[in-house]
């Protein structure tokens, strides 16, 4: 089947098997390897990408379901060589260690902050509860998202 | 705290330098194993056993081979032709790569499918038909020791039972005497269940054999690339794979926690397939394979006893343990100590006598026995002693904090030789506990608890004052398969004063690229930004034993400091030559040598580096570089005191960690930000087994909880807001006074949480609850004690 979509603003297309998972289209076909596979059961969130602006776990939807849609991956966060405030936040607040869950965390945070620009800590924790991290203990991830929220409110991006 | 010696621009020890590794990770530009794609790469997937114990009667690959794109189905018989169907374990037992006769645990590798694409390989796995004849299953290690139990390791000719080894340590007679004479004793059975590290990246590799050059390159998820290279060379030397023709690359690693130390069959099969076909072969396990078949942790059945005087002075400790090793003894331990460092179980307390016994047992479960973010069974030891300390304190009617303060090894007793033979380097345990008590408001919490108890509410306060033991070596005690445990650093300074430094360890998120650069910056005064740190490529890095057991700072970090000091010694000679001064008249401060009494006559380290290539003293070799293979004289003993406050919901049995204060002491700190991050992460990996994680089996050996749908990891919602603080007791023998910290919190946290829950229920008559303390377990206890209906 032919899939046409826009990834990070760029129009792409590919001939795929109907059963191909979106994450494998992104990683193995389009070679954007920032999106990771961690669990195959939609629990860990390492594969989170945005489909028409909504966070989805790309390990449990088919590539063909993205046909005609706008897809955003971690590689699309940086604009014109400038980091997005969520990326800055994770660096500034030490919100990552091994970095494997980080792209998914960033995409979830990005989508969450676009809906809730002034979240409290509980809201942040619930927002990222579909993204597992084994290294950081979450405290600094929460701080990173708070940092990004503050920067975005100041017009950071 | 240590005073800062370098400026923020240089960024040596004590500065919270932002991590050098982050820019690639936040852009999705890291390179993890599954990101590697080579031209003509094939894909390997594995057929696994549905049975925990069964004869393999027949493997029919014909349907799989009929699928277009499936190139081969590899069986144990195929590997046996090259004598690669079995491999040695870390404890010199044997483990099947692919079995030829029978399977020994559920999800064991039975055959492998090699195909042109990932999905076709999976199709091939579905199509392989295996005929099994089920055999009796043994899952309970206590039953496995009964004379009537079927003998599992029929491959071992003389084996008549399922007992692997008996190991004991300490003075049995003195301990038994102390118990006979004791005024008060307590005894408890403690089970520390089988759990799994579940790093978010699973394991895998890409193997490529260059037939022209005769060179094998394997990119793999490993914490110990050099040791892997040597093991590969020793095992596969007979098929022409010599060590200098093997390159192991451990690229970015998505969490290790001990689970990426062992060699898994998938790696070996992929390498064999790559050598046989000449094509690159990728094998990446999925999450179910990872949880079901990779090395587990813990699984210790412990019976512990404490003896004390009426007034609360501990006198003796006695422990007997049954260790479930699964189908083969593949535990990650130094080979001298079958039970690893379990004999650090005297903890932070001054015991006159102690004796510990452990028996290893075979069962029909996956092999392994890694340490889940701790060093070699320390968590089991700490959990036991900290649970028992609470039990004794409560039994005596003493406050658990008071009881600990009374029995701690005193600061003036260091270096301290424990009753089980360890020499603790330094410590001040009371200082850490007092700080934690102040920070959490201990007395106030006790008042609150008393009031709540009157109202029928359940609130508990739990303490854990742990001592870790990390930094394996020293090589006189520690090895992996005979390889002595030291670690290494190689520093090269280029003419313009920029540095490349390579280490024998391998970061899996610990931030080595930053902290190692800070150590060099501290020693040489070269800015962190000018120092490139590399690890994980055996073609370039010096030989080291890898990263686990919190050994990177104690061993490789020390090697970095020692190599830098060698460079400084040579730099002094060059500076003396350039300044036309005597070496002893030169004064060093980070980044420059100046002439004593004439501070303006100076040469910077950068000028000296340039001169090392352009104007070095006659008779001296050019260049400015050094290597150090550091063998520590002793282990290091970081410690801490944790206090946890829990509230228990009487209706559901749910435990909520309301507050958790962690005071850690890891000696001198290289990067405070990174240390704090390591503690946060470790605490979360301590919370997890305390309340959520467990891999259990039914009586047929079926795994219960083999995916993230039922193996529960804490999310941001369950995880408390950790409150951290520190004291600083430098290690006297480490060149930087550092001790290592990555695992302390995982080791110390579970007991604090369990102690808090038992404290909340003690007045009801509850004396012990095995972790994980699930709502169901608590609810059942509450019902038994008439608290809830």
Brief overview:
The complex is a heterodimer of chains A (157) and B (789). Chain A is of the alpha+beta class.
Q: What is the strand and helix layout of this fold?
A:
The complex is a heterodimer of chains A (157) and B (789).
Chain A: E1 2-7, E2 10-15, H1 22-29, E3 48-51, E4 54-57, E5 70-72, H2 85-92, H3 102-115, H4 121-127, H5 139-153
Parallel strand pairs in A: 1-5
Antiparallel strand pairs in A: 1-2, 3-4, 3-5
Helix pairs in contact in A: 2-5
Chain B: H1 22-25, E1 42-48, E2 54-60, H2 62-65, E3 70-75, H3 76-80, E4 86-88, E5 94-96, E6 102-103, E7 109-115, H4 118-127, E8 129-134, H5 141-144, E9 163-170, H6 172-181, E10 184-195, E11 204-210, E12 215-220, H7 225-236, E13 246-249, H8 265-277, E14 281-284, H9 287-293, E15 297-308, E16 314-324, E17 353-361, H10 378-396, H11 400-407, E18 416-417, E19 423-424, H12 429-440, H13 442-454, E20 458-467, E21 479-480, E22 483-484, E23 487-493, E24 499-503, H14 512-524, E25 531-535, H15 552-579, E26 586-589, E27 592-595, E28 598-604, H16 605-614, E29 625-630, E30 639-648, E31 655-665, H17 672-691, E32 696-697, E33 703-704, E34 723-726, H18 744-761, H19 775-784
Parallel strand pairs in B: 1-14, 12-13, 16-17, 24-25, 31-34
Antiparallel strand pairs in B: 1-7, 2-6, 2-8, 3-7, 4-5, 9-17, 10-15, 11-12, 11-14, 15-16, 18-19, 20-30, 21-22, 23-24, 23-29, 26-27, 27-28, 30-31, 32-33
Helix pairs in contact in B: 10-11, 10-18, 14-15, 15-16, 17-18
Q: Biggest β-sheet of chain B, characterized?
A: 7 strands, mixed
SSE topology string of chain A: EEHEEEHHHH
**Large-scale geometry of chain A:** globular
Strand content bin of chain B: 25-35%
Shape field of chain B: globular
- Category by helix and strand content of chain B: alpha+beta
In round numbers, the mean pLDDT of chain A is 97
Number of strands of chain A: 5
Helix content of chain B: 25-40%
Q: Low-confidence spans of chain A: pLDDT under 50, at least 5 residues?
A: none
Supply Rg of chain B: 27 Å
Enumerate how many helices of chain A there are, as a single number: 5
């Amino acid at each position: 089947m032919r899939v046409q979509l826009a990834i990070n603003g760029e129009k792409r297309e590919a001939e795929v098997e109907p059963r191909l998972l979106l994450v494998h289209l992104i990683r193995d076909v389009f070679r954007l390897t920032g999106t990771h596979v961690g669990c195959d059961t939609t629990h860990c969130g390492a594969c989170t990408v945005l489909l028409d602006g909504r966070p989805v776990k790309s390990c449990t939807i088919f590539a063909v379901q993205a046909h005609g849609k706008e897809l955003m991956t971690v590689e699309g966060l940086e604009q014109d060589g400038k980091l997005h405030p969520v990326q800055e936040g994770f660096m500034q607040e030490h919100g990552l260690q091994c970095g494997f869950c980080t792209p998914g965390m960033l995409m979830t945070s990005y989508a969450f902050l676009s809906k809730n620009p002034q979240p409290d800590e509980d809201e942040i924790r619930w927002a990222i509860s579909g993204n597992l991290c084994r290294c950081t203990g979450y405290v600094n991830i929460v701080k990173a998202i708070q940092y990004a929220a503050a920067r975005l409110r100041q017009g950071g991006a | 705290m240590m005073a800062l010696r370098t400026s923020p621009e240089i960024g040596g020890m004590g500065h919270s330098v932002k991590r050098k590794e982050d820019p690639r990770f936040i852009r999705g530009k890291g390179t993890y194993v599954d990101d590697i794609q080579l031209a003509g790469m094939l894909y390997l997937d594995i057929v696994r056993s549905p049975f925990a114990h069964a004869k393999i009667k027949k493997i029919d690959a014909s349907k799989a081979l009929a699928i277009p794109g499936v190139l081969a189905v590899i069986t144990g018989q195929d590997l046996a032709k090259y004598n690669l169907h079995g491999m040695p374990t870390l404890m010199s037992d044997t483990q099947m790569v692919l079995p030829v006769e029978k399977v020994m645990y559920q999800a064991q590798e039975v055959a492998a499918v090699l195909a042109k694409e990932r999905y076709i390989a999976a199709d091939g796995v579905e199509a392989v038909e295996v005929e099994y004849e089920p055999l009796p299953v043994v899952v309970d290690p206590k039953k496995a020791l009964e004379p009537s139990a079927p003998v599992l390791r029929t491959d071992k000719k003389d084996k008549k039972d399922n007992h692997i080894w008996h190991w004991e340590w300490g003075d049995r007679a003195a301990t038994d005497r102390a118990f006979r004479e004791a005024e008060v004793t307590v005894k408890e059975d403690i089970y520390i269940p089988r759990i799994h590290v579940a790093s978010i990246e699973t394991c895998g590799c890409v193997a490529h054999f260059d037939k022209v050059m005769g060179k094998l390159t394997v990119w793999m998820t490993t914490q110990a690339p050099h040791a892997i290279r040597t093991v590969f060379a020793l095992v596969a030397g007979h098929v022409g794979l010599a060590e200098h023709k093997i390159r192991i690359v451990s690229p970015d690693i998505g969490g290790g926690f001990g689970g990426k130390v062992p060699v898994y069959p998938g790696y070996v099969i992929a390498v064999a397939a790559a050598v046989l076909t000449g094509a690159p072969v990728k094998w990446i396990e999925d999450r179910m394979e990872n949880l079901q078949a990779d090395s587990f942790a813990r699984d210790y059945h412990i019976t512990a006893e404490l003896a004390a005087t009426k007034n609360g002075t501990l006198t003796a400790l006695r422990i007997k343990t049954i260790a479930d090793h699964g189908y083969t003894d593949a535990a990650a331990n130094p080979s001298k100590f079958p039970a690893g460092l379990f004999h650090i179980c005297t903890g932070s307390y001054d015991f006159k006598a102690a004796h510990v016994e452990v028996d290893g047992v075979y069962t029909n479960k996956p092999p392994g026995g890694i340490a889940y973010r701790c060093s070699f069974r320390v968590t089991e030891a700490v959990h036991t002693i900290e649970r028992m300390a609470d039990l004794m304190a409560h039994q005596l009617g003493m406050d658990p904090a008071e009881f600990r303060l009374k029995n701690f090894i005193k600061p003036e007793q260091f270096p301290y030789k424990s009753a089980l033979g360890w020499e603790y380097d330094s410590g001040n345990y009371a200082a850490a506990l007092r700080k934690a008590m102040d920070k959490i408001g201990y007395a106030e919490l006790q008042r609150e608890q008393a009031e709540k108890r009157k109202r029928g509410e359940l609130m508990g306060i739990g303490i854990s004052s742990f001592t870790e033991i990390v930094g394996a070596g020293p090589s006189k005690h520690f090895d992996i398969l005979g390889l002595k445990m030291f670690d290494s650093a190689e520093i090269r300074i280029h003419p313009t004063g920029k540095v490349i430094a390579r280490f024998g360890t391998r970061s899996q998120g610990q931030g080595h690229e930053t902290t190692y650069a800070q150590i060099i910056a501290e020693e040489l005064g070269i800015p962190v930004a000018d120092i490139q740190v590399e690890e994980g490529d055996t073609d370039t890095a010096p030989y080291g034993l890898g990263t686990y057991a919190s050994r990177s700072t104690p061993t490789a970090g020390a090697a970095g400091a020692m190599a830098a000091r060698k460079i400084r010694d040579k730099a002094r000679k060059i500076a003396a030559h350039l300044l036309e001064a005597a070496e002893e008249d030169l004064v060093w401060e980070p980044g420059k040598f100046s002439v004593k009494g004439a501070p303006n006559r100076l040469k910077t380290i950068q000028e000296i580096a340039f001169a090392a290539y352009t104007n070095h003293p006659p008779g001296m070799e050019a260049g400015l570089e050094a290597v150090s293979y550091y063998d520590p004289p002793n282990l290091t003993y970081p410690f801490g005191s944790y206090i946890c406050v829990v509230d228990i919901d009487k209706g559901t049995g749910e435990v909520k960690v309301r507050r958790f204060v962690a005071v850690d002491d890891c000696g001198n700190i290289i990067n405070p930000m990174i240390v704090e991050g390591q503690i946060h992460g470790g605490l979360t990996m301590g919370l997890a087994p305390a309340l959520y994680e467990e891999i259990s089996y039914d009586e047929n050996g079926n795994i219960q909880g083999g995916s993230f749908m039922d193996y529960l990891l804490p999310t941001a919602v369950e995880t408390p807001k950790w409150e951290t603080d520190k004291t600083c007791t430098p290690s006297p023998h480490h060149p930087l006074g550092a001790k290592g910290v990555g695992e302390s919190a995982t080791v110390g946290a579970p007991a604090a949480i369990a102690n808090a829950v038992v404290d909340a229920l003690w007045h009801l008559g509850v004396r012990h609850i095995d972790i994980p303390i699930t709502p169901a377990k608590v609810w059942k206890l509450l019902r038994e004690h008439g608290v809830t209906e």
